[in-house]
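Researcher: Let's run the pair from yesterday's discussion. Sequence first, then tokens, for each.
Model: Starting with the first of the pair.
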Amino acid sequence: MFSHIFIGVSDFERALAFYRALMPVLGIEERFCDLARPWAGWQSHPDPRPLFVIGRPHDGQAHAAGNGQMVAFLADSRDAVVRAYEVALKNGATSEGAPGLRPEYHAHYFGAYFRDTEGNKLCVACHSPPG
């Protein structure tokens, strides 16, 4: 469905450190990093797409986190949701909702919400029953 998701950042080095800590917890591999541009991307596995990309906005204007936008990463277990949340907070994220069941979405929805170092809202969710 998606080719890529791009989110803007102002402090690229800080954001890069944050995502380099978070993505391995979710099993997402870094595909490229160009400090001169600056931008970096992570890819799905085994396919090369969709990509998740961070970088300075193309128009040269300052980054501003949006209200109502969120990127949700899929976790393969509830434990991975908890680990990702802990790593995110340890690396500068702010909590928007601790890991837990969200039965208003569906019976097995287990998610955590946080904002990255740039204020972008992220979610990590597992849709599988425990076990």
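Model: Moving on to the second of the pair.
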Amino acid sequence: MATLVSFHAHPDDECIATGGTLAAAASAGHRVVLVLATRGEEGEIADGVMELDESLSDRRVAETARAAARLGIARTEYLGYRDSGMVGTPQNEAQECFWQADIEEAANRLAEILAEEHADVLTVYDENGGYGHPDHIQVHRVGVRAAEIAKTPRVYEATMNRDAIKRFAITHQAEARDRGIETPFENPEEITMGTPEADITTTVDVREFIDIKRAALAEHASQVDGNSFFLAIPVEIFRDLFGQEWFIRRGSSPFGQDGQPARETSLFGP
């Protein structure tokens, strides 16, 4: 059995990007460790879910604990940085935020965990953080450097399949609209998030774990309530969009020796 460390920016990111993969790994007997750079202090709060005396950071830590239990995560750690918010906001300029963190210092914090766990696999994000969020970009930078320091042998960049998202938008957009559900994919031709399908090295089929993934995501109720896109869409559409998770294996070409696409289906292969 192996140890997988999954590094994310904020609580709930672990479910959206890698929830099925983490659940599958835990089910197979691998040790799964979650590391979060921040406690998500700048998240938007869904209406009616917070107590008057409750801080968002405390709430998101509690939500993460419940989500982690559903996914089978054995250990959860926080690097201790503050949520950076979006580019152009005052929070993004704060000295204590993750975006302003010294890469080497932050990488050493993560590398210490990688070394403690004798990590076989680390997941980070692609170099654009999927959709350009500064904390997600920083996860890529810090995670890649931490793997170098700790000599973690396998590093995967969690990403989104841009072509699959476009296909989803074309297939399901009208249905979602008819149900009164707002989607983030109004114009398929303008979608730039994620990675072109041809550049993805690893596709993990997580449909067997889709109910666990959705239930874990629902634990993050301060961010993802029943009216959100993720939970408002029917289960069958959720399975269609989120039933696969995509990665780019660092140091690996998407093409085999014969020049044909070489696709992995697991983070734990040879």
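Researcher: Give me one sentence on the second I can quote.
Model: Residues 134-150 form the longest helix (17 residues).
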